[in-house]
Amino acid sequence: MHKCKYFKAKELVSPEVYKIYGENSIKYIDKNILIFLDTLREDLGVPILVNRPSVGITQRGLRTTVDAIVKDKVKNNKLYLSAHVIGKGVDFEVPGMNMQEIYNKIINNPKKYNMITRIETSKVTIPKGYIHVDTIPTDKEGIYIFNP
Q1: CA atoms of 89 and 108, how far apart (whole Å)
Q2: pTM higher than 0.90, yes or no?
């Protein structure tokens, strides 16, 4: 298992998961997501934020059936196949930095960031203030840009 250098489980899992498993809940996050986050953090030289409970952002990492985003989909009988529910996806922001520049850095360096397989189109995520990456397998070379 990858020992995350810059992130604690609390930053990467929903509060419901953390209440039960504490720091051990990091085992539910794909090791390639952890490696990606540490690599990008080192490259940028500044903190990367995933969950930010102080402002009500708690579901950018691992989400479960008891978390609002997933519960809402289930309640409304909507199919929800998100990388977040299996620990293979993460949304993040980097305060004080241009998110489009960070997005471009990732997609223009597929060998360096080969631990991720997909990135959500910037047209969807950047206006919302975050970048989504995941490790869902694709049949594409490099980092596949997808539209949800």
Answers
A1: 20
A2: yes
- Give the pLDDT confidence of 80-138 residue by residue, as tens digits: 778 998 999 999 999 999 999 999 999 999 999 999 999 999 999 999 999 999 999 99
Q: Can you read off the two tokens belonging to residue 79?
A: 């199919």
Q: For residue 18, which of 48, 49, 55, 51 has the smallest C-alpha distance?
A: 51
Element (H, E) at 122: helix 122-125
**Amino acid letter, 51:** N
Comparing CA positions, the residue from 37, 26, 48 lying closest to residue 116 is 37
Q: Where are the alpha helices (DSSP H) in 23-116?
A: 31-44, 68-75, 99-107
Task: Answer for the pair 91, 132: CB distance below 8 angstroms, yes or no.
Answer: yes
**DSSP H helical segments within 13-98, as ranges?**
15-21, 31-44, 68-75
Q: Name the helix (H) or strand (E) containing 144.
A: strand 144-146
* Cβ–Cβ < 8 Å for 47, 11: no
Contact assessment for residue 43 and residue 6, using Cβ atoms and an 8 Å cutoff: no
